[in-house]
Design goal:
4 strands; 156 residues; four-stranded parallel β-sheet; alpha/beta
């Protein structure tokens, strides 16, 4: 057995971008911004029945400086929007945003002057989850879509 054969057996090679993408994808730290009933479904997603931990996103953080995934769930009032924007701005790069439910995505059935008709008017949204409220399976599917985006992103 030659040296080249030994190297092929014993050394794993990869691209740095692929390895960083894999590590980021499997260690997302979400920050929930729950203002209404969608937040209850988000809590159900974290419980044992649906087990978000198997996707590497169980480390929920309530500090934007420790998070890379913002999950906006529920109605967002115009007075609350500056708070959400400040939280988004405090998150380190790279960062991703999920708009969970009809209210966060488009205002839902609450088409009033007091509520934001979609958070994407103020912060960039990567994945939308439809529903009122969306089921935990939909939240998991959105997380998997975020993981795909993260894995394909270039390492900084």
């Amino acid at each position: 057995m030659g040296l080249e054969d030994q190297l092929q057996e014993n050394v794993m090679t990869t691209k740095v971008d692929a390895m960083v993408g894999w590590a980021r994808k499997n260690s997302l730290w979400p920050m929930p911004f729950g203002t209404a009933c969608c937040a209850i479904e988000l809590m159900a997603t974290l419980a044992s029945r649906f087990d978000l931990a198997r996707f590497g996103a169980e480390a929920i953080r309530f500090s934007p400086r420790q998070s890379d995934l913002l999950i906006v769930s529920g109605r967002v009032s115009i007075k609350m929007m500056p708070v959400l924007k400040k939280i988004y701005d405090q998150m380190p790069e790279p960062k991703w945003v999920v708009s969970m439910g009809a209210c966060a995505s488009s205002g839902g059935v609450f088409n009033t002057y007091t509520l934001v008709q979609g958070v994407d008017q103020y912060i960039p949204v990567d994945v939308y989850i439809p529903g009122c409220p969306p089921r935990p399976e939909n939240v998991i599917q959105a997380l998997m879509k975020i993981q795909e985006k993260v894995a394909q992103a270039k390492a900084n």
